[in-house]
Task: structure prediction
Amino acid sequence: MPKNIIIAAAGNIDERRLNELLENAFGSLNKNASSSREAPPEIKRNFIVKERELEQVHFCLGTKGLRSADENRFEGYLLNTILGGSMSSRLFQKIREDYGLAYSIHSFISPYADTGLLGIYAGTSAEFFEKVLKMSLEEFKLLMTVKVSADELKKAKEQLKGNLMLSLESSSSRMNQLAKQEMYFERFFSLDEIIDEIEKVTEEKIQRLANRLLDNSFFNLAVLGPIKKEKISIGLLTDN
Result:
């Protein structure tokens, strides 16, 4: 098998038959082939608006995230869970449930081999767009300046562990996990190992990572909907 190909399988598998199929499919390929890797892109602040006649304004605010093998990746998963990664998160509870300003809002974390992305998405009205953006940035600032409570972190850990265990019930999810772990770590992590790493995360580590990632010099904003660029105050991104 070439070094730059990873095959992952999960479920009711006949390993010998699988190996035969793989040999037939890939056995003739150059086994010494290696993949070239470009340098990760340099992250710069950017601001894009596409005016379109829609019922809502959709926007994504992104900043630098973590690469898949970053030593702080578990802090990153928990930071995302607290910020907007669940229905009990800060963004969802405050902006959607308490104030009713957005139809949908959540945060996401996307790690890759040599870089990553932390972002939020919201669908709101043109009237409330700037307010939703401002309130989201306020939550960024709070995570940077005020430690999360022990109770909030505990709930986030339980949420993350629960999602992890649910994902293991799916063969396709197990297969994807095997492939990613082999690709990024060249080893398999057991459920107990992962849970142990989640439990090691502290309130201080969350705050430290927030200050590392939520720097406005890395903010990128994309807006789509019935709104003009000149109507948006770019100072919202640069002044926080």
Q: What stands out?
A: The radius of gyration is 21 Å. The chain has two domains: 1-36, 43-238. The chain is about 45% helix and 15% strand.
